[in-house]
Amino acid sequence: MLAAKKGHTATVQLLLDNGKADVNFEDRYGQTPLSLAVEREDTAVVQLLLNTGKVNVDIKDCMGRTSLSYAAQNGGNKVVQLLLNTSKVDVDAEAYNGRTPLSFAAESGKLETVNLLLERKPDVNLANKYGRTPLSFAAERGRLEVVKLLHDTGKADVGKEDIFGSTPLDYANDGKQNKELIRPRLGVAMETDCNYESVAKFLSRK
Question: What pTM, to 2 d.p., does this model score?
Fold first, then answer.
């Protein structure tokens, strides 16, 4: 566990060769050697662990999140691809709050990661416990290219309302208001890839 966390590739290899490593060991937070390596985007250690053929890639931590969930949020595309290549990973694995890997990637604006996930045919309308979809999160953060990519699947429900009655367009408009009125007053800088106006215009035509 510690060797994977610290990125000590040679030590990980030695432990695996000696058969002394429990590749699915979970600490008190539910983290495994794989999830720790994934969070560090340590492709070498991730590959070593996956090569054993014994790793359960869908083990969930204390928040119900899988290794793919963290990799998708971080945009570590090499790690995401390694996990997807196992053909064992659940691309729609839901955390305890109902969030999926696609949802985290969409919110973070990780365009290439979103594309990698979409190649595995996830449910693009899978909502969290509040009824919010990946498109909703992308719209809220002004992720125009992600919004377009999700829409182009032909499956994303642009008008889907969450439990509060809000649609992706509503969240885009809220994000625009946040940008124009709230953040300047708080002295909070905007992320450079947030394009609420274009997202709102794009969704309003659908």
Answer: 0.85
pLDDT of residue 181: 43
DSSP per-residue string spanning 127-181: --TTS--HHHHHHHTT-HHHHHHHHTTT---TT---TTS--HHHHHHHHHHIIII
Domains identified in the chain and CATH numbers:
1-123 (1.25.40.20), 129-206 (1.25.40.20)
| Residue 187: predicted pLDDT | 44
Strand, coil or helix: 67: helix
Render pLDDT for 136-183 as a digit per residue (tens, 0 to 9). Answer: 999 999 999 999 999 999 999 999 999 999 999 999 887 765 555 434
How far apart are alpha carbons 2 and 53 in whole angstroms?
Answer: 20
- How many Å apart are CA 198 and CA 154, to the nearest integer? 19
165 contact partners, CB below 8 Å, separation of at least 6: none
Question: 54 near 25, Cβ under 8 Å?
Answer: no
Whole-angstrom distance, CA of residue 1 vs CA of residue 188: 38
Mean pLDDT of the 115-125 span: 97
Q: 102: Cβ–Cβ under 8 A, 6 or more apart, which residues?
A: 72, 91, 92, 114, 117, 118, 122, 124, 126, 134
DSSP 182: I
